[in-house]
Amino acid sequence: MRLDRITLRQIRMPLVHFFETSFGRTTERDIILVEVESGGVSGWGEVTAGEHPFYNEEWTASAWLILRDYVAPDVLGRELAGPEEVAPLSGHIREHRMARGGLEAAVWDLAARLEGVPLWKKIGGGARREIPCGVSIGIQNSVEELLDTIARELATGYQRIKIKIKPGWDVDVVRQVRERFPSIKLMADANSAYTLADAEHLRRLDDFYLMMIEQPLSHDDIIDHAVLQAQLATPLCLDECIRTANHVAQAARLRACGIINLKLGRVGGFREARRVHDAAQAAQIPVWCGGMLESGIGRAHNIALSTLPNFVLPGDVSASSRYWQRDLIHPAVEVTPQGTIAIRDQPGFGYELDLEYIRHLTVREESLS
Asked: What is the DSSP string of 37-68?
């Protein structure tokens, strides 16, 4: 396999409803799509970086430059034995894993299409024919709006509810959610909004039998999370600070968490995602697939990833209609009344591309050959 051409497209998609975290509020997404071509066949990937460098050091504009000036030249024209060889070619670049992972995921999709197999099979997945789904609900304008939103999502069939928290929007909000929904699978995501000085306050969340508290402390910390975990009954889930399989080993050794959120872009693509998955499985730490407000392309990649065996908890992979009036793929991703998504057996990531709509949304494009 040799990559003949790489095309970068930046698209702008308005969200159906704003999404707010401790970082801020998002109303539309600027997303980079990566198309790689070999022998007239294309594979597609998505860069999951946000519009601003708040979740990590990456953002849309930086990812474009990293891809155009560094990653693409490293892989164009090379003879590749398989997609496993792509990630090491850009390994000399410090971090910028979302940019690198967007291209790497596109090559995995291409390889699957060239072989005529579904992406989930190409990456070694297939442990389940349907993946369990949860939803991530951002900070709302009021608790009443939050409760109404949760009720709607539960009626749709979702198996787990994740709510965002931050100082001033945490214990009292969770208490009201639990009073309204006493038996649902519920978790809270802090997106690094707290410090160890808040341990006593966070311990109050133990009263609400949450599945987990996600990344309450610094985005790059494992040690303080271990200190905090020793003080809580509720399992901690690590997200931002887990970028490699070695980070998983460190977290396990320190007993810093009970669960890991595995995001494809955050770890740099499928090669490292499989290594992170395997390390967590060896340490008996369950994983689930987190979301980054992806379009249907990134969502399809997440579905494939979630078929690996250690993805035993409902992830943030939800229906297209939760985010977009119209998605980039068809059929759109849908969730069954049982709160699952069925995997597809078509080659590659399994969905058809709406190329006309992609062209309509494109705000800049550049081809490299």
From this structure: EETTEEEEEEE---SSTTSSS--HHHHHHHII
Is residue 164 part of the annotated active site? The answer reads: yes
- The residue among 241, 176, 228 whose CA lies nearest residue 202 is 228
CA gap 2, 344 in Å, rounded = 27
Going from N- to C-terminal start, the domains of the chain cover: 5-116+354-368, 122-342
Fold of 122-342: TIM Barrel (3.20.20)
pLDDT of residue 18: 83
Q: Fold for domain 5-116+354-368?
A: Enolase-like; domain 1 (3.30.390)
Angle, in degrees to the nearest 10, between helices 245-254 and 270-282? 20
Give the CA distances from residue 284 to residues 125, 251, 293, 306, 309, in Å, rounded to whole numbers and listed in that order: 18, 12, 28, 17, 12
How far apart (Å, rounded) are the C-alpha atoms in residues 273 and 263?
Answer: 8
Beta-carbon contacts of 64 under 8 Å, excluding residues fewer than 6 positions away, are 8, 10, 32, 364
**CA-wise closest residue to 183 among 159, 214, 166:** 159
Which is the catalytic residue, given 162, 164, 166, 185?
164
Return the CA Rg of the chain.
Answer: 20
Q: Mean pLDDT in each 10-residue stretch from start to end of the chain (369 residues)? A: 97 90 86 97 97 95 98 94 96 96 98 98 97 94 96 94 96 97 96 97 98 97 98 98 98 98 98 98 98 96 98 95 94 95 97 97 97
Catalytic: 122?
no
Cα angle, residue 43 at apex, residues 27 and 31 outer, rounded to 5°:
15
Q: Among the options 122, 166, 185, 263, which is catalytic?
A: 263
Do residues 88 and 268 make contact, with C-beta atoms less than 8 angstroms apart?
A: no
pLDDT on residue 343: 97
Among candidate residues 301, 292, 266, 219, the one with its CA nearest the CA of residue 97: 266
